[in-house]
Design brief:
This protein is of the alpha/beta class and 449 residues long. The chain has three domains: 155 residues, 3-Layer(aba) Sandwich (Adenylosuccinate Synthetase, Chain A, domain 1), CATH 3.40.440; 97 residues, Adenylosuccinate Synthetase, subunit A, domain 2 (Orthogonal Bundle); 157 residues, Adenylosuccinate Synthetase, Chain A, domain 3, CATH 3.90.170.10. The protein is 31% helix and 19% strand. A hairpin with a 2-residue loop joins strand 3 and strand 4. Helix 3 packs across helix 4. The chain is globular and about 65 Å long. The N terminus and C terminus are likely disordered. The structure holds guanosine-5'-diphosphate, 6-O-phosphoryl inosine monophosphate and magnesium ion.
Length: 449
Amino acid sequence: MAPQSGTPNTAIVGLQWGDEGKGKFVDVLAAEHDVVVRFNGGANAGHTIVVEGEKLALHLMPSAVLNPDCELVIANGTVIDPAILVEEIDLVESRGLSLQGRFHISSRAHVVLPWHSLLDGAAEARLSDRGEAIGTTKRGIGPAYADKIGRSMAVRMGDLVDEAYLRSHLDKIAPLRQEEMKIAGNDTHIDTDALLSDLLAHGQRLQPYITDTTWLLHDRVNDNRSLLFEGANACLLDVDHGTYPYVTSSNASALGISPGTGLPAKSLGRVVGVVKAYSTRVGGGPFPTELDNDIGDRIRDRGREYGTTTGRPRRCGWIDLVALRYAAMVCGADSLAITLLDVLSGFDELKLCTGYQTASGQTIDRFPPDARALEGCTPIYESHPGWSEEIDTCRSISDLPSACQSYLESLQRHIGIPIQFVSVGPDRRQTIRWTEPASCSRESCCFRG
Ligand code: GDP
Ligand code: IMO
Ligand code: MG
């Protein structure tokens, strides 16, 4: 469906620690937008789309590939492992989907090189010995962003199609990296010629898509095309505003959109915050509402909570409204998409964390994002009755059991932002658009009118 003129640009961002179901909502909303843009992160992301039972998991390509009329952009704020991207292009094309003329990669996006993943692994091994591992995806994300900020050792996507420059640059940086890896305890030999030839082969394959996406996006805005920004990772993993140091290395909140695309903040439009009906986290770091017990196991089993990128079991817990109010504020969320609500069927009681007690016994409702401050916090819960019925076939709010409707109303009231969408299963069709007036008191509430 072509967007109506005046359709606002939209951002889809996760408000928790990732895997909220962003991919599903990008696929759903892509039908109403012209261009879908990844602005941060790399192949640490794993975004799943399910259409009529068929599943597609993507790491780098925007999750709008199944919408043939949508343009797809991987913008400058991302870090790209070219081998993974080429694999993903092959996968998409093998499904009969054409990318010609509609897929664009920023020449200024940074390249994840083999040593980035090796250094990522070595750093994690070192931290693990001290019990401080971040639990990264080992996709080289942190070291690639460190090189971007460091400037002298970086390679950008545009460099892959400039053989003379790439050869001389690699000749300079590879021996330095070899030394560094040795110091980090990794003896893997880097064959510079083989690396150069791999990168040039990938560059040749990707050349038709590599362009200046900043100009391209401004052209689209000037042509009144509507953009959909696809956040990777999530707000609580944002390097500046998340639970540092247990975060990823990019601005994974909505704040990353402007620097990650080259578009001014005023062109960003509305922000939809995607929120699981409970909480999960993969890797290390504080998680006040974590349930390391039978209830957590049951959520993991029902929600199939295993990483899309690494296959690791996700840590599971009750919904944390203290964290969500903070994340919604930082991202400027205008509305919420509540996902995986179907996973909560069959629990006698559900709990909502509405405040924390700090180590010194103080009660707080302002989220302290720094890991050390958060570690001392214990959740204060409000109890909510559960519902026994399965809800995966519900297609309107009034189909949902009354306890389930009241759970949603509690979330909305505590977070203070209207729920616009509710997801009751992984499939595109298992989506409820909540258009009825609701209990939100905000004048701008999108349920009104
Ligand atoms: P993303 O990283 O935010 O795109 O999320 P992931 O794809 O990593 O993880 C979300 C998982 O939940 C995927 O397996 C989705 O197919 C699935 N999913 C999304 N929405 C729902 C839902 O409402 N119910 C259920 N049961 N699964 C869902
Ligand atoms: P999507 O887009 C869940 C987590 C990792 C680790 C930390 C740092 O699928 O929601 P990194 O490899 O980025 O240096 O790891 O961040 N992490 C994610 N967790 N979903 C993601 O992406 C994530 N991206 C990074 O597990 O704890
Ligand atoms: Mg994911």
